[in-house]
Design a protein that fits this description.
The chain is α+β, with helices and mostly antiparallel strands. It has helices at residues 39-44, 48-62, 87-90; strands at 5-13, 16-24, 27-35, 68-75, 81-84. The protein starts with a strand and ends with a helix.
Length: 91
């Protein structure tokens, strides 16, 4: 997320909370952070119901007329971070 401007951390709307919201150029990026013993097990913790909730909260934040993307920041037991861009498309 180097070069991105942080807009919000732990933003909460009526639909739920978004861990991190950043601006990358003209795109608003909504980032869900998941931590577990490995990157794979962290990714497994992101379920469809949660993705739907985050999408609703993102629309609350900026409406539907903005360029947006949903990423996942996966954190393993050693604290290493793997960023998955467009994470909701791979699940």
């Amino acid at each position: 997320m180097a070069g991105c401007a942080i807009l919000e951390r732990r933003w909460r709307g009526a639909s739920g909370e978004i861990d991190l919201i950043v601006r990358e150029g003209e795109t608003i990026v909504f980032v869900e952070v998941k931590q577990s013993s490995s990157f794979a097990s962290a990714a497994e913790r992101l379920c469809r119901r949660q993705m739907d909730r985050i999408c609703l909260a993102a629309c609350e934040f900026c409406g539907t007329d903005c360029d947006m993307r949903f990423d996942a920041a996966l954190v393993d037991a050693q604290g290493r971070v793997e960023l998955v861009q467009n994470a909701f498309g791979w699940h």
